[in-house]
Task: inverse folding
């Protein structure tokens, strides 16, 4: 009992009335205390807390620990019944303002009923302090996402990384972590040799005058063709790499110029999608790569393999990292070794997240294993995550391509989205109701919102089919449905002439009824906000938030259809509508959706 009490004291369970708190965390702590006190002979007893099924008679949450505990006793030869164990748990359960009562049901389930006054207080807190994040220990986090390659196209894989990475970054920032968003662009390596050599031939005056290369991809293609066919050119390309890597000023200037062209193209996409990133490409690590290669060599981690220098991770990895190529050059592997060292040791990040397509899962598995082996990554101190994602498919379920078989340019894709979004709005006759300005805002909100949401709402491990028709549907779990639902909820208060200040005032009086079944259902969904945020923080799957915000919208509709009535004094309902809107708005912000006032 003493141990359990000590554990209770180390964690604040006293209700903090100023913000919403994680219900499952509180229940977990309460039941952990009860179970440890009831069964001191079991080390690390199972504490199983779940949201109850929708039938109100099963309560709001459940503790399902009695059954597994009975099993533990059975294995050591003791006969017990789970129902008796459940009673023992309840006998030891500390009281808490959040818990109204508990009941034992069936073979030994404990049904937990939440206190509705507590729920009302938590909803009121939203108006006093805004939608606040649950409290977590502050950490320094580096998130590596987007990361396209210079002179190559930024493809839909990079788009997924950009969208998922931005959302995870927003989630972490909302939780008040120190977040650094890093764009690890591919801006170094042998391809620059041929690009620079080709630039020198095509535009001899490029150092004085900006060459007109807007289409770097065809420039890249030309250079590559010459490289493959022309021996003399190939030799000059190799020379150029050597000069670039030794930082020869003219080569550096030409390199910068090429990077700038790509950079401008990337930035157009970021601006349109409202993405923030700090560029720190592979070139940034050049001297650090030289250093770490030497260190790894001296520490005896490198093995000679047919002229290459390789490094093995641990037993879990079946391929090694190539640290130095047989021509002496560095690789993607070696620059990632330098980068992880920089992030964990120089920048002193506590947590590094890589958002990269699942095709690179092995690369990151080896990276983490090698970093551990080299003493750079300390699993006791650091957390590293590979946040992978599946490929984007076209409606024909094949790799996403244009009809002519070319890969799709992202700018064209966004333009197409704008076009389709406008069609949709016109189809609904919105162009007749909205001003041109409002229509434009709605169009952008829908277009970019639907592209982001379609990506985020799928489990990121799965591939998903890119279809404007699907993502622009106004029913089901889509951005269009949610944006409309949100606008409608917000308009309830507006139509009733309730200003935000007035609602805030109203919310202080205890007139937020949660008595009706549908009111209580809505209240409970809203109260789950901290839990949904923490769940996503834990596994970094943004689709949890999509499912949650969709559940809010549908639960609100149920409530509205059965409870809301314009005639009666509806101020309590307006307060609930506004609380719903505020939580949805926070979710939208994390998902990068920009709701508009009218659509
Ligand atoms: N530029 C790489 C690509 O396009 C992605 C880089 C991801 N980040 C990293 N640290 N390796 O595949």
Result:
């Amino acid at each position: 009992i003493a141990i359990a009490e000590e554990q209770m004291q180390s964690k604040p369970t006293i209700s903090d009335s100023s913000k919403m708190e994680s219900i499952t965390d509180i229940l977990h702590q309460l039941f952990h205390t009860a179970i440890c006190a009831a069964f001191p002979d079991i080390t690390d007893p199972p504490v199983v807390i779940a949201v109850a099924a929708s039938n109100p008679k099963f309560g709001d949450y459940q503790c399902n620990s009695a059954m597994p505990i009975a099993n533990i006793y059975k294995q050591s030869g003791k006969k017990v019944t789970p129902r008796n164990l459940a009673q023992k748990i309840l006998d030891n359960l500390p009281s808490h303002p959040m818990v109204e009562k508990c009941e034992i049901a069936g073979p030994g389930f404990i049904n937990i009923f939440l206190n509705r006054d507590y729920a009302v207080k938590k909803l009121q807190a939203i108006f006093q302090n805004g939608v606040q994040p649950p409290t977590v220990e502050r950490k320094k986090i580096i998130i590596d996402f987007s990361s396209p390659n210079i002179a190559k196209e930024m493809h839909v894989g990079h788009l997924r990384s950009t969208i998922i990475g931005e959302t995870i970054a927003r989630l972490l920032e909302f939780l008040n972590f120190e977040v650094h968003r890093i764009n690890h662009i591919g801006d170094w390596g042998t391809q620059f040799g041929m690009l620079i050599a080709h630039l020198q031939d095509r535009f001899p005056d490029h150092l004085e005058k900006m060459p007109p290369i807007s289409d770097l991809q065809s420039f890249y293609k030309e250079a590559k063709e010459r490289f493959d066919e022309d021996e003399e050119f190939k030799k000059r390309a190799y020379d150029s790499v050597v000069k670039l890597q030794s930082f020869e000023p003219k080569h550096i200037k030409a390199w910068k110029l090429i990077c700038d062209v790509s950079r401008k193209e990337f930035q157009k996409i970021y601006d349109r999608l409202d993405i923030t990133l700090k560029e720190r490409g592979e070139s940034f690590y050049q001297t650090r790569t030289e250093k770490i290669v030497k260190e790894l060599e001296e520490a005896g981690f490198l093995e000679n393999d047919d002229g290459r220098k390789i490094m093995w991770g641990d037993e879990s990895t079946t391929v090694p990292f190539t640290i130095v190529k047989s021509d002496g050059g560095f690789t993607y592997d070696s620059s990632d070794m330098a980068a992880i060292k920089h992030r964990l040791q120089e920048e002193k990040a506590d947590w590094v997240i890589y958002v990269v397509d699942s095709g690179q899962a092995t690369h990151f598995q080896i990276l983490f294993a090698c970093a551990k082996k080299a003493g750079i990554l300390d699993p006791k101190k650091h957390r590293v995550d590979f946040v992978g994602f599946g490929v984007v498919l076209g409606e024909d379920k094949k790799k996403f391509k244009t009809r002519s078989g070319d890969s799709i340019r992202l700018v064209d894709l966004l333009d197409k989205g704008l076009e389709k979004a406008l069609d949709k709005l016109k189809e609904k006759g919105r162009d007749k109701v909205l001003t041109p300005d409002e229509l434009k805002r709605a169009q952008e909100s829908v277009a970019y919102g639907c592209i982001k949401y379609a990506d985020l709402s799928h489990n990121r491990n799965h591939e998903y089919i890119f279809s404007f028709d699907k993502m622009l549907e106004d029913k089901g779990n889509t951005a269009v449905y949610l944006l409309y639902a949100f606008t409608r909820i917000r308009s309830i208060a507006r139509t009733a002439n309730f200003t935000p200040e007035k609602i805030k005032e109203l919310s202080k009086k205890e007139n937020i009824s949660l008595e009706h079944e549908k009111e209580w259902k809505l209240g409970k969904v809203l109260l789950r906000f901290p839990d949904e945020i923490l769940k996503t923080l834990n596994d970094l799957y943004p689709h949890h938030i999509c499912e949650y915000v969709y559940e809010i919208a549908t639960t609100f509709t149920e409530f509205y259809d059965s409870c809301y009535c314009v005639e009666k004094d509806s101020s309590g309902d307006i307060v609930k509508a506004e609380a719903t809107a505020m939580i949805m708005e926070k979710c939208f912000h994390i998902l990068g959706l920009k709701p508009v006032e009218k659509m």
